[in-house]
Design goal:
This protein is an alpha/beta fold. The chain contains 5 helices and 8 strands; from the N terminus they run αβαββαβαβββαβ. The longest helix is centred in the N-terminal third of the chain and has 8 residues, at 10-17.
Amino acid sequence: MSGGTADRTNAMRRLEACGASYTPLTVPLSGAAAVSAVEAARLLQRGTDEVFKTLVTVGRSHEHYVFVVPGGRELDLRKAARAVGEKSVEMVRSKELLPLTGYVHGGCSPVGMKKTFRTVVDASAEGLATIIVSAGKIGRMMELSLEDLRRAVDFTTEDLTAERAAAPS
């Protein structure tokens, strides 16, 4: 865990309150703008299947859902809808994210949102010792096991991503 209280985010404090272990990471940013999960993986010198992005959606029922998927993959909206029993889901608009979750685009963590939303993590995370997710602030990430994530967030795991195109022979 991190040094002083000032550099801990709400998501980190939530994990600590739940007794979860994590390693704080800082993405070296050249400006104030957020970077994609793929770019964060490159800057952290990690694989794009280790750095996960947190995506917030709304279903046809108007319920909101959180999906946590590898940065190098795309959320398959049909699989996502099926995972939560909806006919369809769509991404929430960027301007709706902060009032809904308390997080900005590029700094959205699955931990410590304003409200509790049904959360689904891509099944690929089950094969990893740890995953890296946003710590709730642009440029801040945290590495933790699924067991430690589960201490703070109730979630299920499902196959959520679009199939990768086969590489040319």
